[in-house]
Amino acid sequence: MELTERQKQILGAIVDIYVSTAEPVGSKAIAALPDVKYSSATIRNEMAELTQMGLLEQPHTSAGRIPSPAGYRLYIDELMQDYRLSLDETRTLSQALELKSQEFDKMMSQVGKLVSKMTNLPAYTVATRQNEAVAKHFDLLMTAPGSIILVLMLSGDVVKNKLVKLPVHVTEQELKLLAAVLNASLTDLTAEQVTGELLEKITRSAGSAAPLVPLVLDFTLECLRQQHGDVHLTGQMRLLGQPEYRDAAEKAQEVFETLDEEMLTNLPAVLPKDGPVQFLVGPENVARELKDTSVVMMRFDIGDGMQGMIGVVGPTRMDYAKITAKLGYFAENLGRMFQKSTPNPPPVLPEGSENEE
Amino acid sequence: MELTERQKQILGAIVDIYVSTAEPVGSKAIAALPDVKYSSATIRNEMAELTQMGLLEQPHTSAGRIPSPAGYRLYIDELMQDYRLSLDETRTLSQALELKSQEFDKMMSQVGKLVSKMTNLPAYTVATRQNEAVAKHFDLLMTAPGSIILVLMLSGDVVKNKLVKLPVHVTEQELKLLAAVLNASLTDLTAEQVTGELLEKITRSAGSAAPLVPLVLDFTLECLRQQHGDVHLTGQMRLLGQPEYRDAAEKAQEVFETLDEEMLTNLPAVLPKDGPVQFLVGPENVARELKDTSVVMMRFDIGDGMQGMIGVVGPTRMDYAKITAKLGYFAENLGRMFQKSTPNPPPVLPEGSENEE
DNA sequence: ATTGGCACTCAGAGGGAAAGAGTGCTAAGC
DNA sequence: GCTTAGCACTCTTTCCCTCTGAGTGCCAAT
User: Fold this and answer.
1) For each successive 10 residues of chain B (357 residues), what is the average pLDDT?
2) CB-based contacts of B337: which residues, under 8 Å, 6+ apart?
3) What is the spatial distance between Cα A101 and Cα A277, in angstroms, rounded to a whole number?
4) Residue A342 has what pLDDT?
5) DSSP state of B79
6) Are B81 and B19 in contact (CB under 8 A)?
7) pLDDT for B26
8) Looking at the DSSP assignment, which residues form a beta bridge with residue A297?
9) B36-43 long-range CB contacts below 8 Å, 24 or more apart?
10) Nucleotides on chain D within 7 angstroms of protein Cβ
11) Has residue A39 got a pLDDT over 60?
12) Which end of chain B is more exposed for a tag (fewer CB within 10 A), N or C?
């Protein structure tokens, strides 16, 4: 069942209007649009049909129409216009991207804050590995007798560290030795390649630093197995700015709770691995609490087998085009930033940038 | 002006009731309490007086009374009963404290999540330095040609790292040399003690790794100057569970925004340095947006000149006694955990633990 | 095929009226 | 002289009713 051109136009218009007003759209409003040549009656007939097809919904008999989840899906897949960032928006974004490059994790959380601010929606960021992690370098530093800091460098320029306190005494010499052993035998191995045999061998070579070995190994394995870094979620409260949550503190709270728990741990796994942009519309979502809530996410390459993900969470009625554009701009520039390694802001403006909000 | 015993009892009762119902308290409700021997009329007279003294407030003429900020303050300072954790509560808390000791920063954020969950309020955690930070150890690791990771260990067992990308080529040898120079000349110095002179000396000794020096130094100084670690704020949404924010999404949003920005950066500075527990009641607060919002915070010692802070944010009408007790328990046990360094949960039950919610 | 017209529906706004909770004050009681 | 019962008064909250208006569906005319 194919839609006619007119039906597409009407569906598109309804989504566009509803997205910015959050109110059901009536036939008159459509008819009043400059490039609509038909009367409200015609529109009404078409709307009735679109409703029957399941693309529109009617909150109650005497209200206008709102897009159904299927309607959104169709809109996203076929009708959505590329939104061009306005000059103002690009400027703000470019400025925003001039982050002091800090520690990596902090930067991701910074990026999240920015995305949230720019979209006025809750945003999350994650860094995930694309391939198996391996250890690249071990370092053992003594801070006080019995107090040792283990610094572990992984592939992808990720550095982890952990404070280890040992009751037994270990000399600097022995630490150096152990570090050398670890660097010799444990680097460039994935979690699976670390066998019990290997562990024994290391323990034997470790001398009196042997009690340290299991602690180091546990930590190392834990780090290697971690498929993705911390998930940063910020700006949850911005969801309250959306009309659908205005006076529904309860609903908002539910969404937040789900976001906090389920989503953050599962989301990276749930999302399909391919394609840069993903949309999860309402009921397509994992958790039932999120049925009126949608997710837009975008991947970008960090290099070294790492991949960043930025996304926003919002009401199903959100301005997908605009948000995709903003996320895209972020992702593109972040990717570029990481690619050419020097932490300079990439001031690349998208062409055609004088349309406004 | 001293309060009579009866006035104290009435004020205390009003706070207690208001704290759990969030509704103005009438004279009848007080008179109905088991250990109140006076009629509602008498209570009314006393309430009128307390109102005149500025300890109570009346939302409107025909409503009951609620405590004024001054009333809360007096309650906290003089009337508050020690809340004893119930057996159930201690059990839950003890379980909760069995954290896998992870990287320090992550642990603080974990603690925040727990505190928030236990109190059902937004919670924040920070680690602050008590004295000047100094660098303890430098490490430079080459990951790829031109790509170097700087690992910096500070006093207080804090480890920071940063990825530095350099266009010039530096050999492993030169890196080792530079690290040695840094370790020799830059450790155990506070930020002020790092002079331009010293910088020059280091640059001279660095050989062809000299271009690295300013990058390393900037980062080091940045770390040294950082008085406190990341402020973790979690569970913001729980504020919505409080009746005063139920249908006031707007207000909640304002609070959140303020929390996010102002508070998180200023709070550690604003709070007085002494005493383990601090209360900031409503208008005593920094930001105007938080005038109906109060903060309870508690310090605990981490050792090595570091201090942890945990706190919650809630409506001014909150159960200070209960929250203080919970925070106290957390703080005490966290302190103990850090003290005796082995990451075991300390299962110390407070005496007398069979009262309930 | 499109459109103007019209009857119909239904959510939401507005406006009292009634209910209910609580007060302050007065006068009686211990 | 403190305490208390009683009562008139105040003011918010709730409920119900009506009215309005936006929007629909359908029919007949173009």
Assistant:
1) 88 93 93 91 95 93 91 90 79 65 68 87 85 85 80 81 78 86 88 86 83 86 80 85 77 78 65 68 68 84 78 90 86 74 40 38
2) B97, B343, B344, B345, B346
3) 25
4) 42
5) I
6) no
7) 94
8) A278, A311
9) B36/B9, B36/B10, B38/B6, B43/B10
10) 3-6, 9-12, 21-27
11) yes
12) N
> A220-236 in b/e burial notation, b at 16+ Cβ within 10 A?
beebbebebbbbbbbbb
Q: pLDDT tens digit string along A126-175?
A: 888 777 788 888 988 887 777 788 888 888 777 888 877 777 788 888 88
**Residue given tokens 């407070």 in the structure block:** B350
Kindly list the distances between the CA atom of residue B155 and the CA atoms of A92, A321, B55, B189, B190, in Å, as whole numbers in the listed order: 39, 49, 47, 10, 10
The DSSP bridge partners found for residue A128 are: A228, A307
Tokens standing for residue B202: 């280091």
Q: Which of A137, A147, A246 sits opposite B249 (nearest CB)?
A: A246
| B104 neighbors A163 (Cβ within 8 angstroms) | yes
Q: What share of chain A is helix, strand, coil (3-state, %, to 5)?
A: 50, 20, 30
Q: Is the Cβ–Cβ distance between A197 and A217 less than 8 Å?
A: no
Residue type, A174: E
Residue A67 has pLDDT above 60, yes or no: yes
* Helices and strands counted in chain B (H then E): 13, 10
Q: Which residue shows structure tokens 């973790």?
A: B232
Give the residue carrying structure tokens 């105007």.
B288
pLDDT tens for residues A207-234?
Answer: 778 888 888 888 888 888 877 777 888 8
Q: Phi and psi (nearest 5°) for A143?
A: -105, -35
Q: Is the per-residue pLDDT at A244 higher than 50?
A: yes
Taking any CB pair shorter than 8 Å as contact, residues of chain A touching chain B are 101-104, 106, 136-137, 139, 141, 143, 147, 149, 151, 153, 157, 159-163, 165, 167, 230, 235-238, 240-241, 245-250, 252-253, 256-257, 260, 341-343
Average pLDDT, chain A: 80
Q: Are A84 and A93 in contact (CB under 8 A)?
A: no
Are B139 and A149 a contacting pair at CB < 8 A? no
B195-220 pLDDT, tens digit each:
888 888 888 888 778 888 888 888 88
Contacts of A165 in chain B (CB under 8 A): 341-342
Q: Is A23 helix (H, G, I), strand (E, B) or coil?
A: coil
- CA nearest to B137, candidates A151, A168, A217, A206: A151
Q: Please answer whether residues A206 and A178 qualify as being in contact, where contact means their C-beta atoms are separated by less than 8 angstroms.
A: yes
Residues with Cβ < 8 Å from B80, sequence gap 6 or more? Answer: B320, B321, B324
